[in-house]
Design goal:
Elements: H1 5-21, E1 24-28, H2 39-43, E2 48-51, E3 68-72, E4 86-91, H3 104-110, H4 115-118, H5 123-126, H6 129-132, E5 138-142, H7 154-161, E6 169-171, H8 179-187, H9 197-202, E7 223-226, E8 229-232, H10 235-241, H11 250-253, H12 260-274
Parallel strand pairs: 1-2, 1-5, 2-4, 3-4, 5-6
Antiparallel strand pairs: 7-8
Length: 293
């Protein structure tokens, strides 16, 4: 079922707010042609891009006058790959024509295997998802179909998303026949739409984003929000005030994740019991949690 124009407009506005507040990650599957990657989508301030496409020119699509890219294919990622000014692009299956230094690809080629049969999924990159998508960061998945040969097998996709917080991934261009992908999305409470991501964004007037509004990696754990925009504070500043004040940051909110209704109810009850009976009580609530803090 496709969503209505009113629903698409609300979703587009929500996406705009998410870009202002969080690191946003794009996943581009094999089923995504350059025509589906509109100029508007390419210009969005992505903090990271994962792709199973192997064409060498893919990364250059995201280069503009305001930013460049850093491509990862066979290399290990030694830093947190979140950067709007130099977008990390992680190739889950490498780049067409690229060979590793171990000589394995040459050996397989001598045995008669084609280059497409030589490629292997880089599961280390998938293993980054839980860390990158903690707190309120989001990943939008476009052009993935579990039945497409050469894309991530659905069991590897599901395994990589298992430790990702519920609702932190959204699927677009989902085929109604892709029952396995829909099952994964429902199990993890990931929103999914049959609609095209670019078409949804085109419903709303083009928005001008402030790249500097998202905190840099070194302070990403101490994120809080002012008027809906994310900002960050240094650890030293928090230490100086810890004896009389606590800042409700994403790190504090997600320090404990109660699982199941019983733990959630107990967690909230303990909070009430430990609160001052005479002084003011305070709490925070996040839309993608089912408990109060």
């Amino acid at each position: 079922m496709h969503i209505s124009r009113e629903e698409a407009l609300r979703l587009a506005r929500k996406i705009e707010n998410q870009f202002n507040s969080n690191h946003m990650i794009l996943f581009v599957g094999q089923n995504t042609s350059d025509n589906l990657l509109s100029d508007y989508v390419l210009r969005l301030p992505w903090s990271c891009v994962f792709t199973t496409r192997r064409d060498p020119d893919f990364s250059s699509l995201f280069i503009s006058d305001q930013r460049t890219v850093k491509e990862y294919s066979l290399d290990n990622v030694t830093t947190t790959p979140l950067d709007r000014n130099c977008i990390p692009i992680l190739r889950l299956y490498g780049v067409e024509g690229q060979t590793n230094e171990s000589g394995e690809d040459d050996f397989l080629a001598q045995l008669g295997f084609s280059s497409s049969e030589n490629i292997e999924l880089n599961k280390k990159y998938i293993g980054l998802w839980p860390k990158l998508l903690e707190y309120m960061n989001q990943m939008f998945v476009i052009g993935y179909n579990s039945s497409i040969s050469g894309d991530i097998p659905i069991n590897d996709f599901a395994r990589g998303l298992y430790h990702v917080p519920d609702e932190n991934v959204t699927f677009f261009d989902v085929s109604e026949d892709d029952t396995m992908l829909i099952s994964v999305a429902k199990k993890k409470h990931f929103p999914y739409y049959q609609d095209n991501f670019s078409e949804i964004l085109s419903i709303a007037p083009e928005y001008s984003y402030d790249i500097s509004s998202v905190p840099i990696d070194s302070t990403v754990s101490n994120v809080y929000y002012i008027n809906g925009k994310a900002t960050a504070i240094d650890d030293l500043d928090l230490v100086q005030t810890k004896h009389f004040a606590t800042l409700l940051t994403d790190k504090e909110v997600y320090s404990i994740r109660p699982q199941g209704r019983y733990q959630q109810a107990t967690y909230f009850l303990n909070f009430l019991n430990l609160s001052s009976s005479e002084g003011p009580q305070w709490y925070g609530y996040l839309s993608n949690t089912k408990y109060y803090f």
